[in-house]
Amino acid sequence: MEPELAVALPAAGAACATALRPRPRLALGLGALLGAGGLAAVVLSSPGAASDLLGITLSLSAPARSMLIVAALALAFVVVLAPQNAARSSLLRWGLAGLAGMAAIAVAPTLDVSVMVLLALVVLQAAGPGRRPYARRVRAPALAVVLLGLGLLFARMPGPPALERLGAVGLVAGLVAALGALPYMHEFDPEELTATSPIPWIAFVGPVVAVVVLTRARDLLPAAIGAMGAMLIGLGLLNIVWGCVASWRTELGAAAWRYSFISDWGLALCGFGLGLTEGWAGALLILFSILIGRLPLYLWSRQPLRDKIQTDRPINLVVAAALAGSAPFAGFTARILLLRGATALYWPLALVLAATLLLWVPSSLRLGRSLGMPKGRQLAGIMVTLALNVALGLYPQPLLSLAGL
Amino acid sequence: MSEAAAFAAWLGGAILVLADGRRGLAVGLALMAAGLGGVAYAAGEQLTGAALLAGGVVAAALRWRSGPEGWGLMQPGSTPRIVLTVVIGLVALYFAASLASGDGAAVRFAPMACIALAGARLLQGAERGAALTAASGLVLALGAGSVLGSSGSLPAAVVAAVIATGTSALPAAEPHGA
Amino acid sequence: MPPLTLLVPVALPLVGGLLAALLGRYESGLSRAAASAGAWGAAVALVAIWLPVRSTQELSLGQLGFGSPLELRLDTVALVFSLVVVVPAATLLTLQPRTWQESTVAALGVAAAVMAVEAGGVLLTAIAGCTAATLAVIQLEVEDLRAPRPSWAMLLGAWLALAWAGVVLQVHGGTAVYSAVPVSAMTVPVFALIAIAAVFGSGFLPWRGWASRLWARPSLRAAGMAVTTLQPLGLYLLVRAYELGDGRYPQSSLNLVLAAWGVLVAFGAAARAQAATTRREYMAEVLPGLAGFALMSLAVGSALGLVAALILVATSAVIAICLPLLPERGGPPSLLVAAAAAGVPPSLAFGGRLLGLGAAFEAGGAMGLIGLAGVATWLLAAAAAARSVGLPAGHGRPAAETLPRVAAVLGGVAIAAGPALGLAFIAAATAASDVMSTQGLGLGNGVVSVTTVSTLIPVVALLGPLLLVGAVALAFARPVPATARSDARPPLFKLYGTGAAARVMEGVRKAAVPGEYRSLFNPRALETAAAGGTPMLWLASLVALAFAVTR
Amino acid sequence: MSQVLAAIATHAFALLVYPGLPTLALFGLVIESLWSRIAGGSQVVPRPRLARPPIVLVAVALLAVLAAVQVAAPFNPVPPGERNVIIAVVAIGFTAWAELALDPELVAGPGLLLVIQACWVLSVLGPAIEPESLRPQVLGNVLVPGLLPVKVASGLLYLLCLPALLRLWPVSPPTDRRTRPRFNTTRALVWFPYCALFTTLFFPPQGDDLSGLVRFFGLTIGVAAVCLIAATLLALRGAERARGLYTRAVAPYSVLVLALIVVTLILMH
Hints:
The complex is a heterotetramer of chains A (405), B (178), C (551) and D (269).
Chain A: H1 2-19, H2 24-44, E1 50-51, E2 58-59, H3 62-80, H4 88-107, H5 111-127, H6 134-156, H7 161-179, H8 199-220, H9 225-249, H10 253-274, H11 277-307, H12 314-324, H13 330-345, H14 347-356, H15 360-369, H16 376-394, H17 397-402
Antiparallel strand pairs in A: 1-2
Helix pairs in contact in A: 1-2, 1-4, 2-3, 2-4, 3-4, 3-8, 3-11, 4-5, 4-8, 5-6, 6-7, 7-8, 7-9, 8-10, 9-10, 9-15, 10-11, 10-13, 10-15, 11-13, 11-16, 12-15, 12-16, 13-14, 13-16
Chain C: H1 8-24, H2 28-53, E1 57-63, E2 69-74, H3 76-95, H4 100-118, H5 122-143, H6 152-173, H7 188-201, H8 210-213, H9 221-244, H10 252-274, H11 279-284, H12 286-299, H13 303-325, H14 332-342, H15 348-363, H16 365-388, H17 404-416, H18 421-432, E3 450-451, E4 456-457, H19 459-476, H20 498-509, H21 523-531, H22 535-550
Antiparallel strand pairs in C: 1-2, 3-4
Helix pairs in contact in C: 1-2, 1-4, 2-3, 2-4, 3-4, 3-9, 3-13, 3-18, 4-5, 4-9, 5-6, 5-9, 6-7, 7-9, 9-12, 9-13, 10-12, 10-16, 12-13, 12-15, 13-15, 13-17, 13-18, 14-16, 14-17, 15-16
Chain D: H1 2-16, H2 21-38, H3 55-68, H4 85-102, H5 110-129, H6 136-140, H7 148-165, H8 185-202, H9 210-237, H10 239-268
């Protein structure tokens, strides 16, 4: 029963929160309750076990399950410690809708259904209020769906191996487009609401989509795994370099944060591309740190960015260290795992990877400063984020075990 | 029969690309759904075909009721779109019939052409109603594509039909704040 | 002693740091007390854990999740290096006033450095070392944002290099635990990575690296802590490299290269020191010079060289306490500290350098030539120290953070400790025996004399009377006339190339695309094109990907 | 314990009696007086005065004594196995810089002095590389044909450096306005270590008997005499010529010696 509930309860929570918009407290309470129920359903579900209650076989893989749990915790964390002036009920509404969609993507019986749910999410997110016209907002994520769909078709066509490789191209390009990473970056408006901006794709929904697409692709394209890995590594390196440099040099603070997500995704793509357990473990650690680290920090930086406040207090520097992937934070451990995978696969790749790992520092200092002078709830939130990040960096075994690694 | 259905699906997709009015979009979506359903039916997946047809027809009916006025078919300056539909059709035909091997070229052609056409419509950055209709067409094409899969395609088709309907049910006008 | 006690030396500074953060909001003095108590507690705990057993103790707490177990180990090498880190840090934390933020970060940095030394494997050392480096940078930034500090990227890169070395050991040797790595896994690339980590992580550079630039800061609170926690770690890695290679480096040529690098580091420091325009500039080159000699001695490859390196590391620790406490005006404290660092007989630095150079000459061949360069460098350093006595003070420091008497006493102790060289020799030899065979050292003479292959140094019999006679004679001597002090002195030789290097660096920093080519390379336009959501770019990249995988 | 006390007593005797302080003071007094006379100094022998010695003198004396006990003088109570050439080199080398630190007026051309000191270090320790020994008398005893060229070249370099290291050259400190040199007490203290170290390193060790003692001191005085002659010639040619000699001749020659040492190392291995 759990997989169905994992989708239904957050969806119901989102629906309640939407219906009860005029009464935010009630909406918040009910939404939180249903969301917690959804989280409980995910936690209680046993990975890999199929459920056929609705006539459709639903199951949850271990990596997707771990990602859903962390995403739900990140959402709870963000809602509880939201900045004073942020509408918590709105955050919860969008978050629960996203969570329901992510759960549906994760439990879907086939990749086709996952892609359809992704399209539904795309349509719903673009339907929200925004500064850009609907068609412009829907364009890039829809491209992801188109590419994933074509990839699936090519993967299933009988014929020469080139067709399977084209399938791999479709799936990889579709995934990158769904995330909004280079070369399929989504249009970004710094003044836009976070929920209707490209950030949820790269920082909230993206991790589950990536895990589901890549897990399923391994069974779908057994002969094209090498080509897929090569593409992932190539695009990963491209995103690392572009993301780090742009995050350092770009003019707008919000854009710098967006590029920093892209650079982290570059690392994750490299990890997935390695195809080894260490690579996957490193990539998952990066994604965990995005969910419980970079995303909340980005949300807390929004107001200081608007107020153009930049400070260099100790907390800003510690945050910069965490964002730069320095020890003892999760980024360093993830980098160790990636280096291990790359060394086992092909050591010059490890050399290139090691060289690029230094690009994070200048942009991280800038992003750390952009948090301004955190106080009260924001300060507490940052402290908790850093503590979680340190715990994940020093002892990642529990979460990796949760992900079946 | 399957070839005719595949052609109908392409034609529907082409109309979706060439139309700017709600009637044109609705007819295009309905024709595409019928073609995709027919292809699935011909491939021996009757229920899948029925689900796709039902979803498409309902979604088309919803679109018929809201969106920009009229048919808006092949308005001035739509030559590139015409060329695009033809090119997409030819490329899809090459992949489905020439490069891929085995029977069932129509089952490969129709979803591919429809995904590409609906995707092209979405990338055009047209107004909201057209984009939502294209999204409905896209999800139906994805549902039809699952016929190629080894596992059963009915659940995918049902989900596709539901999402297509829901998408068309969304308001076609931009909300405030846009 | 239960193995869990090995966590205590790490935990105490950690707790001290947290207490400092809690108490500091009310009273900065309390935070200072908490941080220093934590550091002193760690020092006491280390000795208390090691003394009853006097042999290696290990603790394994299972896998951490990145292929490395949480394994701690306290052998004599770890004890020596832990104390070399903790004692100076604790002294400075006790004697120098700090804000609660500085005390907290400093105590955490001490805990990380001790963890790096106590770690049983390369990966854990890398993580703890990188943590210590990060905290050092944060501490320096907290103290003064605009003052010089090490490049964060360089330190991160250094520790990533060590992490990569650990990873290579895991992949090719099955483990990165120091005591379990098969000798065959310790290849030249692995050693190169460890050496890079040591050289850049601890600032062992022939040019004016961060280890020198730190001393140009207006205040020397954070600089002192950064040097005491980071500099010994680099040498520690190179000592452990001997253990990984079963007492030797993968190739003898690596010993030569590293020893030559060490002499270059010492020579660079001495050359800059002799051209210093203020006493502060001279002070900045003292520790890099000593580190260079320690590096050279360590790289000789013999047990004697390793022992000499350990003695020099201990001496550096004493000098590292003195320098931040030293006022910039002249006088006996400056004279004593400069003499102790320059290795005036019969100081401990004299003994350490003597043994290190002796080891180089006894190794013979090219290593002998390096030893020759080492002796010349030592005399250059002595000339620089002599010249520094008459230099004007630097740009001044807060008087509250200087304690000239303590510095003078410690400098005096470092000089008077020469006759105890035998004791230091035995202690260092015991530590060295953890990583290589010390059979050739001849420890039979106890603390009275030090035996090398070709000679025997009667440390007590020769240096003892010399010390006594010297003390008496100096007590009766007429002091230096004040007129000989604090006049600007020309350098013994000009440092050609430094200006050019600075100009080149400035040129690189200011490098820009020439105006007429800007239209070809416009970052803003590039960003707009990439982030603008242009379907043509998407289509082009899709075609490129398809072409790449299907050709 | 008794052995330790005996060793301390022996070394203390060596430091304070022979070949320590009195020996080097007497030797220095004689040679320095001779030099004062040759150079037409205003004061040949210093007037004995009861006064606290300047700190620079004490420092130089301590260093000189430490160096003196390392030489292979007959009847030296310090056992041959306990002598170390590096201690001697460093102790003598420090004397010049002790003066720079404590009485800068005494030091002329410290930069050039540094270069010459480096050449001198090469001449002392260069021959020690191949034998891989630091015992001074072992180095003096090296008569292997393959090593003789290095030994001879190094000996010549040592002698060339000596006048400058002892500051017998006509280069005077900028602050020294005296037209005629006076008795230099600090220099008097380093005559013996410099000259005796040469005898130790470049001549076979002498036996612990009277003839050995005579031969050793004879050779040491001979070295001092060569040094005085060289210094006199330098004085005749003037400061600029002296500078030129050391910068244009001695330094390049030391590079040749270094090359010879490297070649010898390659050939011997």
